[in-house]
Amino acid sequence: MEDALQNDAIDAQRALKAKRMKVFITFAAGMAGLLFGLDIGVISGALPFITTHFELSSRLQEWVVSTMMLGAALGAISTGWISFRLGRKTSLTAGAALFIIGSLGSSLAPNVPILLVSRVLLGFAVGIASYVAPLYLSEMSEKEDRGKLISMYQMMVTIGILVAFISDTIFSYGGHWRMMLGIISLPALLLMISVFGLPDSPRWLASKGKFDKAKEILRMLNTTDAKADSELNEIHESLKVKQEGWSLFKENKNVRRAVYLGMLLQAMQQFTGMNVILYYAPQIFKHAGFANTEQQMIATVICGVTNALATIIAMKTVDKQGRKPVLKIGFAGIAIGTFLLGVCLYMINAGFSALWISIFAILMTLFTIASFAMSAGPVVWILCSEIQPLKSRDFGVACSTTTNWIVNMIIGATFLTLINTFGIAVTFWIYTGMNILFVILTVLLIPETKGISLENIEKNLMDGKRLRDIGV
Ligand code: BGC
Questions:
Q1: Which of 100, 103, 125 is closest to 46 using CA atoms?
Q2: CA 275 / ligand 1 centre spacing (Å)
Q3: Structure confidence by residue, pLDDT tens digits, 201-256
Q4: What is the pLDDT of residue 165?
Q5: Is the CB of 408 under 6 A from ligand 1?
Q6: How distant is the alpha carbon of residue 251 from its chain centre?
Q7: CATH number for the domain that contains residue 66
Q8: Does the C-beta of 275 come closer than 6 Å to ligand 1?
Q9: Of 131, 192, 225, 360, which is most buried by a Cβ count within 10 Å?
Q10: Which protein residue's CA is at the shortest distance from atom 3 of ligand 1?
Q11: Ligand 1 neighbour 194 (Cβ under 6 A)
């Protein structure tokens, strides 16, 4: 009797320790997400002041914005290798250090070349963070709450974007663009400190043959030894395929299918047009009839709030309703939102200027943002970290994350040209068409991975099952 009580107490203590560790892991990986969001969000507010300070041409303005995405694409692709060789923890530490250097460098830049180099370094850090953090989280979590944890990471991305919008608004009163860019070094420092306390991923350790260490960490994360040992066994099984990244990609058709699926998912996420709305929100509101800068800034902050709040819906639904239904509803929502937004803008441009049309245009913008945030925003990152086989996971996730940044850059660089060529309404209708296509692609190609262990997904993929069935 006494023994039983003592055992219960030990179990409770262990469960509490495992829970605390998980909270810390989520916090640290969440900091990486926060920085990702801060860096995406900060530039729109800082750019007008940087332009005046350095008397930038429009070409140079585009460079100031896009060097970050270029750096991110480079960061994501090279981190595949770094994180495979040195582990997730070391990569995150390197990312945090670059965040600090990049944000201080761009904030103190005495001239444009130093600003551009700092933006590439900062982008490199964002590329590392956007690559390693979801991968690390998917490897550290139990299958039942993997979706929730990665949505939590996405939630931090959206909070980062929102905080950047708010901080830009505050600093914009004095035109303090250096403060806007420099303040990001503080959360970067916090990330650096917290990463030191993180354990390395047991899946990565096992892939390097360090089974004892992997077992130790799994036992720390699980409530019972039996659970930890069974997870280690599953990892052991999935490691029997003895090949790696690029060579596996060249030789194995199933690995190629997973890599292409990941790239397609990220391209779909970006071609929804979400970032166009985020980057150009003030211009969209101007077209909708809100001419005053203050109104536009407030509307932009409301976009940021909607983005963050709607991500909570994803956190609550992905592990219960599953990835696929959420994704279908999301793409359908974005299609409806962009279509109706286009209709409003068409009417305004044609000379119908009623207040209700402008308000409806704003509501449709928010509806589009919410549809993305509750679906493709988090779900694409979740799926991309789940579908790659362990031996080529680093390579696969590097390819999909790099695709995210390259398409992000294409979207940002083509939006204004599309508007000038086709007009703003037709531009949004092009995105409507894309999102309808994505509903169909989701039905045909995307697997449901809710509640399935990573090892099972891998087995189904390697057995040659159809992509949409690898999660069943
Ligand atoms: C996307 C970013 C986007 C952000 C918006 C992320 O999932 O990858 O491109 O800016 O969501 O919240």
A1: 103
A2: 7
A3: 888 888 888 888 888 888 888 777 888 888 888 788 777 755 466 777 788 898 99
A4: 87
A5: yes
A6: 30
A7: 1.20.1250.20
A8: yes
A9: 131
A10: 275
A11: no
Cα 304 to middle of ligand 1, angstroms: 11
158 in ligand 1 pocket by Cβ < 6 Å?
A: yes
Q: How many domains does the chain have?
A: 1
Calculate how far, in angstroms, residue 218's C-alpha sits from the geometric centre of ligand 1. Answer: 31
b (16+ CB within 10 A) / e for 421-434: eeebbebbbebbeb
Distance 1 CA to ligand 1 centre (A): 54
- The answer for residues whose C-beta is within 8 angstroms of residue 368's C-beta and 6 or more apart is 273, 274, 277, 333, 334, 337, 338, 341
d(C-alpha 284, C-alpha 272), whole Å: 16
- Tell me which residue of 443, 304, 433, 435 sits closest to 376, measured CA to CA: 435
CA distance 372 to 385: 19
Is 209 domain-assigned? no
395 part of a folded domain: yes
The answer to whether position 206 is within a domain reads no
In this structure, what token pair is assigned to residue 234? Answer: 């599953």
Please give the residue range of the domain that contains residue 191: 2-198+241-469
The answer to whether residue 229 is domain-embedded is no
Tokens of 81: 């290798």
Query: Which residues in the chain come in under a pLDDT of 70?
Result: 1-3, 5, 7, 10, 241-245, 293
Which H or E run includes 256?
Answer: helix 253-271
Task: Give the C-alpha distances (Å, rounded to integers) separating 83 from 95, 177, 245.
Answer: 11, 34, 12
Per-residue model confidence (pLDDT) at position 243: 46
- State the Cα–Cα distance between residues 211 and 89, nearest whole angstrom: 17
The residue contributing the CA closest to ligand 1 atom 11 is: 377
What local confidence, expressed as pLDDT, does residue 224 receive? 78
Residue among 445, 66, 35 at smallest CA distance from 265: 445
Number of H helices, E strands in the chain: 20, 0
CA 136, CA 40: separation in Å to the nearest integer?
21
Distance 403 CA to ligand 1 centre (A): 13
- Whether ligand 1 lies within 6 angstroms of the CB of 281 is answered as no
Rounded distance, CA 361 to CA 367, Å? 10
Q: Which residue has the tokens 């997400």?
A: 33
| Per-residue tokens: 235 | 């990892």
Alpha-helical (H) ranges within 272-322 are 274-287, 293-317
Q: What is the 3-state secondary structure (H, E, C) of 5-59?
A: HHHHHHHHHHHHHHHHHHHHHHHHHHHHHHHHHHHHHHHHHHHHHHHHHHCCCHH
